[in-house]
Write the structure tokens for this entry.
Amino acid sequence: MGWFGPSKKKTLWKAAKDGNEAELRRLIELGGNVNWHNPEEYGSTALMAASQFGHEGCVRLLIESGATVNATDSIGGDSALHHAAWHHAAWNGHLAIAKRLLEGGADATLRDNRGRTAIDCARERGHSEVVALLSEPRYADGDRTECESNVELNANRMRNRLRTE
């Protein structure tokens, strides 16, 4: 299994969940898998955990490191929930995280296994600022594909690297 066996993958996931940005960065630099689905936590990814618990720095770092923003989890062997990390952000009212995920290419039109989008979750919880953000035409229309947004993201990463060199 190499250095990043199940316990090391879980360590990266836990660093994201706990908001330990320094440890998360270290593990990513060592080659940690930012897209690993934790089977003990309903198949959630580090990005979902960081989003759910409000750790914006970890969310930023994971997106910059190639985390799949539209990944879905599964519960108890049921069909996969179309419940990407930004759903957690909308559910808990983390406006800055919802913005970061959307800017990273999250698809605001994805639906979970109950047919809800992130805006539905935000409405249920009364998070009016998140509802307003998700209602913006550039997000609500769903006219960007993940492929297009990843191309944009990679181009931005390259520009940022060139600026710092």
User: Anything to note?
Assistant: Confidence is low (pLDDT under 50) at residues 76-86, 143-165. The chain has one domain: 6-164. DSSP finds ten helices and no strands in the chain. The two ends are 35 Å apart (CA to CA).
